[in-house]
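From the methods appendix. Each design record in this collection lists the tokenized structure first, followed by the designed amino acid sequence. Records were kept in a plain field format so they could be parsed without special tools. The example shown here is representative of the layout used throughout.

RECORD:
FOLD TOKENS (152 positions):
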């Protein structure tokens, strides 16, 4: 049972850090061309907004909302990572303590829950920036995507 909760926590952690990985990969190489200002959508745009025709004001609001959450996400990811790291070390040690392992797993799970909640808040903030037509377009995109996130 404890391994299942660890596996689920690790899966959630990796899923939640994918947007940050995508942001990191968008940075140009040091020897590449210099970045161009105000071209295209803001970096780190969620998939449901990609390709959508957004005004400059909408892009600015999306940028601000996306980057405002970065410090909280980073802090919670550090907490979850450290708790998982300590849990793995504890599991491999001869001084295993189930109560301490449970506390570490709870710490990691709470951090992951805060990350998930912040992502849900961000999605709502971003949807509020859109016009009704754009919201409908975003909903159609999400509905057409296969997988567990598909809404009925």
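DESIGN:
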């Amino acid at each position: 049972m404890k391994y299942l909760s660890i596996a689920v926590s690790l899966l959630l952690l990796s899923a939640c850090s994918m947007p940050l990985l995508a942001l990191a990969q968008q940075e140009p190489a040091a020897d590449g061309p210099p970045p161009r200002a105000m071209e295209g959508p803001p970096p780190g745009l969620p998939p449901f907004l990609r390709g959508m025709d957004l005004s400059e004001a909408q892009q600015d609001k999306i940028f601000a909302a996306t980057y405002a959450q970065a410090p909280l996400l980073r802090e919670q990811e550090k907490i979850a990572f450290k708790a998982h790291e300590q849990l793995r070390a504890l599991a491999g040690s001869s001084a295993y303590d189930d109560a301490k392992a449970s506390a570490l797993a709870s710490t990691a799970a709470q951090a992951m829950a805060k990350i998930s909640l912040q992502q849900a808040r961000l999605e709502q903030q971003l949807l509020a920036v859109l016009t009704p037509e754009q919201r409908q377009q975003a909903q159609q995109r999400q509905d057409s995507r296969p997988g567990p996130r598909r809404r009925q």
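APPENDIX NOTE: The CA atoms of residues 68 and 122 lie 10 Å apart.
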